[in-house]
User: What shape does this take?
Amino acid sequence: MSVRRLAPDPVQPASFAFTAANENWIDQQIAKYPAGRQASAVIPLLWKAQEQEGWVSRAVIETVAKRLGMAPMRVLEVATFYTMFNLQPVGQYYVQLCGTTPCALRGAEALKKVCEEVIGPQSTVTADGKLSWLEVECLGACCNAPMAQINVDYYEDLTPANFRQLLDDLRNGRPTKPGPQNGRIGSEPEGGPQTLTDKALDDGSMIGAGGWQKRIAEQRKAAAEAAAVKAAAEAEAKKAEATPAAVAAKPATETAAAARPQPSAPAQPSGAASDTPAAKGKVEKKDVAEAAKPAAVDNVTARDESKPELLTAARGGTGDDLELIWGVGPKLAKMLNEMGIWHYDQIAEWTPAELAWVDARLTGFKGRALRDDWIAQSKKLATGWRPESKLGDKPAE
Ligand code: FES
Assistant: This one.
């Protein structure tokens, strides 16, 4: 921290006065404080004076003291304590170059040399009045070190070359772009994300958290599938009830229901009433119930014609590593092998119906094959391509 003194007498102006607009602004600031507490506005007033003049001279201190009814010494104490107040004249572009450790490690020393070459010694203004500079402590932009504050803007990720160019642009009135000078946005890592890039972290599966997002998705999908199966079964049942056989059997069914033995009554011998209309109605009722059965068994039976090609063993005695398919773990891989599925090219050739056939048999994992698009994944794997992670490459949502 440098010693902060007022500028030497030769550079001190004889007087200072706020502009009319600033006088108006000052009145509003002072009005914010209770009577007798006007001194609380000392920092806003000093700041406004610095905005107007570029620095805080002795005349500014005396004017502010008078305006607030303070001893000039008290205002001087404030002005010399806070480094944001410039006690020396500054250029039109005032460069505050950070020289603290992170910036120093990233090249601030070389930037200081640029300042000395282009501007001159610290706290001196160039002959054209355009530039002056000062080394300051950390300005809180260490992620983008080295950096400098020029007037109210931060310029970061500076190099001697781009800093020299920046000073030249400012001096010659060319537009400049505050912020990082190396193309990155904010303080993001150069070249894009460098950490936590493994997609397996997204659902916690890497740490064995079980993939709660997947579980919820599976539960939702299973619920939707169950609802679809139920709706299909109900539609099937209605259709079956509308067939002539079902219509003809209806009275008999009702008769049979009326004649059905109560739980406490002894059961009829099996063949005794097999020819009776009631029994016949029972048979028809059973057919209808069969048609309406919504269980997975129906589902599986209906899809049997969509059964994909299954093998009795892996070709050449070795199957592909099915765990490279995203969503397939050791348990599912074993289940697939037991089904007769060993190779990527087998899965790659499935039709949607065959995929559904397999999906319906993935006990505990139903819907997984469709959700994770095993066909597309296997097509890629069958070409010889391999994912970066041994968990596979998560398909896009
Ligand atoms: S060390 Fe330079 S901004 Fe923090």
Notes: The first strand starts at residue 93 and ends at 98. The CA atoms of residues 286 and 377 lie 44 Å apart.
